[in-house]
Amino acid sequence: MVIRKKKETKKKTVTLAKGVKVKKGVEERLRSKPGSSSVGRYKNVSPKDFAGKAGGSDKFSFPINTLKRARNALARAHFAPNPEGIRRAVYSKYPALKKRKEARSK
Question: Global pTM?
Answer without folding.
Answer: 0.79
